[in-house]
Amino acid sequence: MSSKINISVFVPSVGQNHEFIVPGEMTTDKVLSLIANLLAEEYQGISSNPSQLWLYDRSTLDVLDPSLTFRQLGVRNGSKLMLA
Fold first, then answer.
1. CB 56, CB 62: distance < 8 Å
2. pTM over 0.85, yes/no
3. In the prediction, which pLDDT does 44 show?
4. What topology is assigned to 4-83 in CATH?
5. CA 5 to CA 80: how far, in whole Å?
6. DSSP readout, the chain?
7. How far apart, in whole angstroms, are the C-alpha atoms of residue 11 and residue 39?
8. Tens-digit pLDDT profile for residues 33-53
9. Domain positions in the chain
10. Residues with Cβ < 8 Å from 60, sequence gap 6 or more?
């Protein structure tokens, strides 16, 4: 069983943070797709198409490489990300 990571994702289009627990060994593109689908159900106007969205590290504003896992990127418990 892979270990889970607790992340905080700020969504500027709705002005809110959301907490997620995700597998550390899942690639960023798969996590992005799951988060986008959840938020699209909750908020009008948020795209569920992950090709239109990116995850960023909030401290550096670097885009997270979609082909790498959160572990490979150094994302750990408490990491603050942004979806835009």
1. yes
2. yes
3. 84
4. Ubiquitin-like (UB roll) (3.10.20)
5. 11
6. -PPEEEEEEEETTTTEEEEEEEETTSBHHHHHHHHHHHHHHHSTT----GGG--EEETTT-PBPPTTSBHHHHT--TTEEEEE-
7. 9
8. 999 999 999 998 788 888 889
9. 4-83
10. none
